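To fix ideas, we now present one chain and its tokenised fold:
***
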Amino acid sequence: MAAEEKEEAQPTTSAAGLASASSNKLQMILIIANTVATLGMAFILVISHIKNKNTQSVTDIAVESHSEGEAGKASEGGGHGEGAAHGEGEKSSDKKGIEFGKMVTLEQFTINLATVGTVNPKFARVNISVEVPGEDIENELNQKMPQVRNAVIDLFNSKKPADLATSEGRDYLKEEIKKALNDFLVTGKVKGVYFTNFAVSG
């Protein structure tokens, strides 16, 4: 009877040993998998950091181009006073060359032209932009907009359709408008007058 009990106890012990061995294997597999995943992530982070370090940023490019420009200027000047002064003169003239005035766009004009002795009245539909050197004169121009529009209308009313048929005639009218506006402006002078749209009826 005791021998049978021993035989029955042996299979139970071996089953427990098998279960613990399989759980140890599972733990070992999980630990290895976690280690591999962690190493993989660390490897990816290191590679991406190296790539980012090697890629030039916008600030790097700007600093390099600025330092190259400075080196070029120094070599061109050659340390002579005249060369340095000449370089400064060119720099200031370049700045003057790219200075643009402010554009003031006037509301569209629809103006009757001088058509004495004809049955069908003729008119011009025009969009005008005026170039001014700065904000002061821009503000003055906007404050005196009724005078501006009146001056433009009076000039167009004095023109015949034939006067505006050629580019020379239109250029002359632009100069007349510019002169008329400059006659009453105080803070500065108009630099240019531009027709952005121009149509004459008939």
Q: What stands out?
A: Helices lie at 2-54, 58-77, 81-97, 135-143, 145-157, 167-184. Strands lie at 102-105, 109-112, 123-132, 192-200. Residues 58-97 form one domain.
